[in-house]
Structures are given as structure tokens and as C-alpha cells.
């Protein structure tokens, strides 16, 4: 194994003896590289934005649910009470649906 002290002179000699490679890299390769880089950066940015906004959305949703829970669940002013077994059944289904929503 070559020691660290010998590595730098060997690297300088290798760089000094190398010849120029007369190759052409067109603008398409650079644009492709930039497109891939932009795609990667946008994907990472979207992921970070999602991670930051997710707790805020949950807090807003819970706040709305708590506000709905505090509302009066009775009929609105001017609204008639349910009459008849069919209408009472619909009203009970609505109440049970609200209870299920509150449990979630």
C-alpha cells in the first residue's frame, strides 16, 4: 500500500503527464443534467413542504372538529321537530353519524 506522503507526488505526476481529451460535450448533456437536478430539487422541496404542512393541517382539522362539537345539535330556529317514525329514524341516523365522526 502506498503511504500518504507518496500519494500527493504521484497524483501531481499523473496530472502532469495526462494529455487533453479532445472531446465535445454538447449543450444537450448539460440541459439534461440541469433538468434532472431541478426535478430532484423540486421533489425534495415538495417532500419537505409536505412534512412541514402536515402537522398544521392536522391542527386545523382538529380545531374545526372541536368547533363543530361545540355547536348545538338540535333543530335550527324555525325548523320543525321531526314528526313520525320515519323522520325520527332519519334524525337518529344523523345523530349516530355525528357520534361516529366525533369518535374518529
UniProtKB/TrEMBL annotation:
Keywords: Membrane, Signal, Transmembrane, Transmembrane helix. Residues 64-104 are annotated as: Disordered. The chain crosses the membrane at residues 33-54. Residues 1-20 form the signal peptide. Residues 86-104 have a biased composition (Basic and acidic residues). This is Lipopolysaccharide assembly protein A domain-containing protein. It comes from Thiohalorhabdus denitrificans.
